[in-house]
User: Fold this.
Amino acid sequence: MNRRQLLLGLAGGLTGVSGCFTGGSQRSSPSPTPTGTQSSPTKTNTPQGTESPEPTASPEPTPARTMTNTATLKFETPESGEPFVINPPEAYKTVDIGSRENVENPGRQKGNAVYIFRQPEEAATFEVQIADLETNTVLVHQIYRVPTDGSLKFDFHEKSHYALNLYDFKYEFGRSLDNQEVFFDCNGRYHTLFSHSNGEYNWNTTATRRDCD
Assistant:
């Protein structure tokens, strides 16, 4: 009887092993695992680079109020004169005093505005108090931070006698604007209240010219 010889062909299988990259260098292929044991690859998480947060500047503390809460003209009224500012800086904030809805004839009785700023341009912190002297009422009492190239604008809509008191924290003194009833007529009008480089203030008024009845 012829014997058959069974030949078994053993084909060596090649398995591709991917290298694990850590810190930019490649690891060598792992050693063969002993028979009867199983090894699980250990995954290494490399911490990603982190950026430190941008430092944030702490806001300047709000100064304490200096004025008493009374409806009066508290300081000296500044003089008018040079320089005469025709075009005040653009208002970064506008505060309304009263309402045009309360004016009986708004076409004939105009309101007026007050622009507060520094000349030359400089950021400033002001305490502003506005009072109606006819009704003995304080309408506004706030701290404002005016930016370098801006102004603080108050729109007075109703005819009355107003006191605008301004305290300048840099120069540590105050000035007052006496916004009287005569400024509320048929002419459009605005006031500029601004400081010079030495801290002193000017008050100028620009208005149309009409004969008001």
